[in-house]
Hints:
It is a single chain. The protein is mostly helical and 425 residues long. It has three domains: 55 residues, no CATH class; 224 residues, no CATH class; 59 residues. Helix content is 64%, strand content 3%. The protein has a two-stranded antiparallel ribbon with strand order 1-2. The chain has a two-stranded antiparallel ribbon with strand order 3-4. The C terminus is likely disordered.
Amino acid sequence: MIAAMLKTAESRERWLFWLVALVVLGAGLGLRDPWPADEPRFALVAKQMVESHQWLFPMRGSELYADKPPLFMWLQAIALTLLGNLRVAFLLPSLLASIGTLWLVRDLGTRLYERSAGAYAAWALLFTFAFTFQARRAQIDPLLVFWVVLSVYGLLRHVLRGPVLRWWYVGWFAAGLGVITKGVGVIALLFLVPAAIAQARGWIGVNAMGWRRPATWLAPVALLLPIALWLAPMLWTVAHSSDPALHAYADNILLRQTARRYADPWHHRQPAWYFVVVIATQWLPAVLAVPWVWRGWRDALRQRDARLAVLLGGVALIVLFFTLSAGKREVYILPALPLFCVALGPWLPRAVERPGARRLAFGLAALMTLLATAAGAMVVFGHPSFEAQLDEASSRAAPTRSAACCWRSQRGASPRCCCSARGGA
Length: 425
């Protein structure tokens, strides 16, 4: 049976990919406690849900926790109920969401282009600093990324490979799940803007969205359904309660943490070019391929290829959306990264054959290895306060604790990865 599964080069590459993904993302599962600042609060909220049997209003001790919608904490609580082990349960939603994101990227790249495009896109995403670092943490962002990518996957299955109404509905429904995860799940719908423009201009590969069909207009209902499943009982309880804490919770989570936080943020203020720096540093090593793929992108756009136009246009709109707000964090644009890798996929096989690209990737891997070795040596032999300084520095420079990867391919062979382990993995 195993021999049959590994019979072809394609099957061997596929099994190797999932084995490496599980090792990279799942190493250490169940071996650590939640780390500050956000992991302990989410884990304790989930633990309190299980113990109190009160899931509608997340509680942190005696206080209502209104910073984020409850879906991520619900999933942690479900995992804790099923497994009974908090060390495993608090990390499991992020791990499963990241594995799901990788599957969506592989499949979307394969369906839009070819199998090798999906494979290269998934390898690129797996070893991109920002994705790997966040996937190994119990944060909301990996789950949000999964919902956004699932939403875009469904929308593009309908728009570029359809019409397929069921995937159209899945796309809108997943966006709704993204809303009750972190409030900004609707950013997936931004991909419909370049799709509509490409359709209006008659670009190759985009299908009519079928706005004249009544069934198409049911899609917003799919968006509102998961939101209503949470919002309706929550608002009904608030409306029938005289507790001022519940009313403050509703105002906080529906207004202060969404519209007010975007329009008038009270922290994380950054300059307009902040995300340019994030992309240049935290989207490594995938972004290093751009100098070798941009000519392919240019030729595809000149040939009016709607697939690339929709992917790059959607990524650009997500970055622009968060750039317009004064409050910025590197994780805000993380949902755009998997779609960026899908756009890279078709041109990566030739890019990694270029000597310049190989030298650059090797240099990055060598640099990361030296930094990790130096940090380890300073922990063992250095000043006693170095660990505290390292923790402080790592919070400001997350990419230095992730992975670096370079690809090598042979004639007709599948992508192979050569990575340096990230610090602490």
